[in-house]
Design brief:
The protein has about 100 residues and is an all-alpha fold. Helix 1 packs across helix 3. The chain is rod-shaped, with a radius of gyration of 31 Å.
Length: about 100
């Protein structure tokens, strides 16, 4: 008599399917209802919801960082232009001083 153990294969879910389930969770449908209807463990649904919230926070932080970077770039470009103008003024002043001697 052989003692063979069958390994359970993990189910994989398509991203679109997960997105639809997350929409249901966000809309207020109970986790237990979704779990029963689709045959998905409740803890997996909670994990999907948590991961989705984390991704949303990361995206928000990235967009905030990029807008701060864009503002800093604009500020630095304005500073460069101001310095160029100052340099031109100093060159002209130096030219006037050297021509008067």
């Amino acid at each position: 008599m052989k003692d063979e153990k069958k390994s359970k294969q993990r189910r994989s879910y398509e991203p679109d399917f997960k997105a639809e389930i997350l929409k249901m969770l966000i809309s207020g449908k109970k986790v237990s209802e979704i779990s029963e209807a689709f045959g998905i463990a409740e803890n997996l649904l909670y994990r999907w919801k948590t991961l989705s919230a984390m991704k949303t926070k990361v995206k928000a932080n990235e967009s905030e960082s990029s807008s701060k970077a864009a503002a800093e770039i604009a500020k630095l470009k304005a500073e460069i232009e101001r310095l160029k103008t100052d340099l031109e003024i100093l060159k002209k002043a130096l030219g006037l001083l050297s021509s008067s001697n």
